[in-house]
Amino acid sequence: MEKDIEDIMQFYDSFVYIVEQISLDAEKQISKLMGTVVADELASDFSEIGMVYAKELLDNEWITKEQYTIAKSIDEMLAGMSKRNELWTEDALINAEEWENCRKKGRKLLQMLHLSCDGGN
Hints:
Blueprint (H helix, E strand, L loop, with lengths): L4 H19 L2 H7 L5 H22 L5 H17 L8 H6 L1 H21 L4
Helix pairs in contact: 1-3, 1-6, 3-4, 4-6
């Protein structure tokens, strides 16, 4: 059954917000999510919430297969990082190459989402 357009728009906005969050510089991530375990919060938001939205958006043709694949690769990077406790500190968030790679992929995805939103202009 096809989803209501309002629901899909909400999923899209929420997905973009989660991608924006993972794309921020570490210092902005830390200040925005102050009071939480920032790395855990970023990862769980992306993997447990963002990927659910991404799948719905893909199924309803609101994002492309390529955009979904990038989101999936971020999710897989986060899953791989979860085996390494040292990557889940604020210091690691700032200094670890793994987190920077997630941010770079997030920024690429965000750019693609914004391009598809405005007709590629």
